[in-house]
Amino acid sequence: MDSLAGKSGLHLDSRALKPKLVKGHDLTELDIDAQVTGDYRGVVRFLNSLQRSTNYYAVEGLTARSQTRSQGPKGGLQVSVHIKTYFRAA
User: Which of 12, 38, 64, 85 has the least CB density, counted as fewest CB within 10 Å?
Assistant: First the structure.
């Protein structure tokens, strides 16, 4: 996640992970809540890189608002993303 955000020109402000075993399957479901800041173009690149990743990512929710930091770039966005992914248990 850090790498995808950085390559997209975004700053990963926070990330929360919630793993959950999927009963009857050899899978772990991972809920990811992340907050990134940057410009619109970076957000689009970030979402595109999730889509094209070799891992499976499902964006379940996204909220965006204008960045309110005085030192941030003009036209910056603060985006919260809720993502779900799955991993095989070892």
Answer: 64
Whole-prediction pTM: 0.81
Q: Give 30-89 pLDDT, tens digit per residue.
A: 999 999 999 999 999 999 999 999 989 999 999 999 876 555 556 689 999 999 999 987
Q: Residue 61: what pLDDT? A: 96
* DSSP alpha helix (H) spans, the chain: 2-7, 40-52
Torsion of CA 75, 43, 2, 73, to 10 degrees: -10
Query: CA–CA separation, 38 vs 25, rounded Å?
Result: 38
Residue 14's H or E segment, with its range, is strand 11-22
User: Where in the chain are the domains?
Assistant: 2-88
| Buried/exposed 13-41: b ≥16 CB within 10 Å, e otherwise | eeeeeeeeeeeeeeeeeeebebebbbbee
